[in-house]
């Protein structure tokens, strides 16, 4: 009886030892998975490329796909002419000004100077998409459309000009080559190799040197919620619904750019 009792006691003790070690083994396995040895993350790649970091040997934009004639934001590009309370139409002169520049979708307000590794890459990609049929703005210089025009504002309405620039949307990813190897490698990508998440919008330019796009005169019925929003806005260039998408209180009339006189070249 005594011998049997010792045997049971011995087996029970072994089980307790095994259970005590199991969590330690799990932790030891988890640590290497959670801590890659210094590999550059996509956000670090983007930050280093944006700052033209000294750690980089090179940073380039690799294009994956593109789309011509991609329309930009819908913007009000003239002062608002007020014909509220009137029972008849009114002839009004509008001073219109719209500008375009190359936009890189890395972070808000980011521009890449031509003297940086990344900026030079964007310029070279732009050369690839600049053709005899479609001329684009490859650098970060601003191109402007500016003119005065007399048009008709409807009765009891607000009138103003709207603009949406035509752009070539080139999407792809960033490829960064570091001077010193990290985690055994020097090349890293953002957000990943082969991705099409980084967008570069190259404005399309007409042969006369002015931006290409959609231009229209918008009339908004006074007293409507849409009119109240415009009258209460303090922003000169505020975003608006697209052409024909303003609702029953809004009337849009497209103006061909060929009819615009006095357009200023850059």
UniProtKB/TrEMBL annotation:
Residues 228-250 are annotated as: Disordered. Keywords: Signal. Residues 1-39 form the signal peptide. It comes from the Bacteria. This is Secreted protein. It comes from Streptomyces regalis.
